[in-house]
Amino acid sequence: MPATVESYVPPPPGAELLRATSLSLRWRVSFDRAIGYLLPLLYLVALLPIAWIVYWVSVHALVTLNWSALTDTSPLDTHSLAVPIISTFYVMLLATVIAVVFGLFGGIATAEFLSERVAGWVRTSANLLAGTPSVVVGYFGYFAFVLYFGWGLNVISGSFTLAFFMLPYLFRTVDLAYTSVPRSIREAAYGQGARPLQYLLRIATPIAFPQVLNGVFLAMAIGVGETAPLWLTLEQSALVPTGLFQPASFLTGQIFEDYTSGPGTPGIALAFEAAFILLVVVISLNIIVRIISARFRKRVEGLFQ
Amino acid sequence: MTAANASGPPVLSVRKLRVRAGKRTLLDDVDLEFEQKSLTAVIGPSGCGKTTFVRSLNRMTEMTPGLKISGRVDYLGQNIYDPAVDPVLVRRRIGMVFQRPTVFPMSVFENAAFGLRLIREEENEIDRAVMEALQRAGLWDEVKDDLNRSALGLSGGQQQRLCIARALAVQPKVLLMDEPCSALDPAATQRVEATMDRLKQEIVIVLVTHNVGQAARVSDRVAFLHSGHLVEVGVTADILERPREKLTEQFITGRFG
Q1: What's the gap in Å between the CA of A195 and the closest CA on chain B?
Q2: In A, which residues are within 8 Å of B118 by CB distance?
Q3: Do A301 and B106 touch (CB under 8 A)?
Q4: What is the pLDDT of residue A69?
């Protein structure tokens, strides 16, 4: 906040000058002030792209979106997104379970049980996996699950590939959640005679759990928006899958298939609707993360000093 | 090297204890005995090895990678560094209280019951032991109305006494205290000192402190450590008023530390 100048009293003679009097100083003060007003505007610049995307997608999607477009699972209704919505839900659920199992064990092992050196290598490889382009992960899934394991282009291959893509995000949050338990708490538990597993289950997990849950939702938000890992491992279908080895459509695939359909076509309407639903899902997941974080901070207030 | 109120064989006896970290020697050939029902203050300047010393008495030194320990520490005649000894069981018998209060994010009751649950004590036994531990730690009157409140809501001094209660709940014969008042204000310090004063009539307390005044107030015996060496040990009044060693005198008169 800029200081007010109304009540200015001239300093007594001989006093040290606390006010900016020289030209260069005055210029610097006003420059600082101007920056103070400009920086909040930069927030708007950061907000602009997401606001624009949400607006643009909503405007196009809401024209055609109606209840039956979300609920009608008939394979003959080509204007319905119900099948890809339900299928996406199934694939996400399976992928999340797989990623959580691997991420939880990997993250806890790295945080608690591996030596510093090995843990460093594991963290580096997780970062590499996070940096791997999704299309490469998809290609790997195609070769590994679809061809090598011979599972075919179906729900199980798609879920495993997507899980691999989500894994590093989950791994990192789990690792961080467990390593950020204060050292003093760790020592107190061991000093009281806790065995490693007792420390893990009774002390560390209750502290780390909200952060782990955050990691799960963030990984879901990242996973649900991915196209390539599923596009290369999962065959599109007009039906809701009833088993692991069946093809299934998914929302990002819907966009990828239809976005070139041209203005006014049913395809482009479906693509916009799918995009809208994805945005709603991703934003909701992020809001859940915010809520959990806020509660978590309240619960362990005073623990992290 | 006998305690002021010597009675029976020592509970803890340290022989030629040496702790090294790489090429640095943190503790060099320390010999010290701790008798039943006594409070020994370990004093010395920062970095003299007093924390390392107290942590080596229940094998907490193993939580710091890279420390090499030789010599022996006998607890009731058993060397706790014997390869067959389980460090977890050692820590369950020799409790520890740290510099900063380290309550767990759970209720007051669950904090005090933590050690009991680790050893799968009977549920009704836990209730009784928690109450007794809180009384011995001098916290019972302040928390008895609501044992289910979060321990994180207690004041620093109350948290520290809860940590003492947590350690006492499993009935240890030895309690190690590593500068337990260094994060507390004078009033809270006084209450923790009152607790120590009572406890020293029941168990062995090893108190690490940088505060000569605290040593004078609560200890029966003072051990002065300087750069890893045990310079001298004796009855508190003797050491603080008539130290035999020049280094001790310089430290307690505030010339360094």
Answers
A1: 7
A2: 192-195, 198
A3: no
A4: 77
pLDDT at B118 over 80: yes
Q: Is residue A118 less than 8 Å (CB to CB) from chain B? A: no
Disruptive mutation site among A117, A185, A186, A192 for chain B (greatest number of B CBs within 10 Å): A192
Ranges of chain A with pLDDT below 70: 1-8, 11, 15-20, 301-302, 304-305
Structurally, at CATH architecture level, domain A67-304 sits in Orthogonal Bundle (1.10)
Residue, of B187 and A25, whose pLDDT is higher: B187
The average confidence (pLDDT) of chain B is 91
**Whether the Cβ atoms of residue B222 and residue B239 lie closer than 8 Å to each other:** yes
Give the DSSP H or E segment for A121: helix A116-131
- What lies within 8 Å, CB to CB, of A251 at 6+ separation is A81, A84, A85, A88, A224, A274, A277, A278
pLDDT tens-place string over residues A161-170? 999 999 999 9
Contact A193/B170, CB-based, under 8 Å?
yes
Q: Which of A190, A193, A207 sits opposite B105 (nearest CB)?
A: A207
CA pair distance B42, B59, nearest whole angstrom: 18
Sole residue written with tokens 């067959």? B84
Beginning with the edge strand found earlier in the chain, give each strand of the sheet holding B94-97 in spatial order. Answer: B94-97, B174-178, B204-208, B39-43, B221-226, B229-235
pTM score of the predicted model: 0.83
Q: Tell me how close the Cα of A219 comes to any Cα of chain B, in angstroms.
A: 27
The partner residue sitting opposite B152, judged by closest CB among A184, A202, A303, is: A303
Return the domain boundaries, chain A. Answer: 13-61, 67-304
Whether the predicted pLDDT of B2 surpasses 50: no
What residues in A contact B100, CB-CB < 8 Å? 184, 305
CB contact under 8 A, B102 and A187: yes
pLDDT of residue A212: 93
**Sorting pLDDT into bands at 50, 70 and 90, what band is B93?**
very high
Q: Chain B within 8 Å of A207 (Cβ-Cβ)? A: yes
Distance separating the N- and C-terminal Cα atoms of chain B: 24
pLDDT score, position A302? 65
Element of type H or E holding A286: helix A266-299
Q: What is the pLDDT of residue B4?
A: 46
Which residues of chain A make contact with B170, given a CB cutoff of 8 A? 192-193
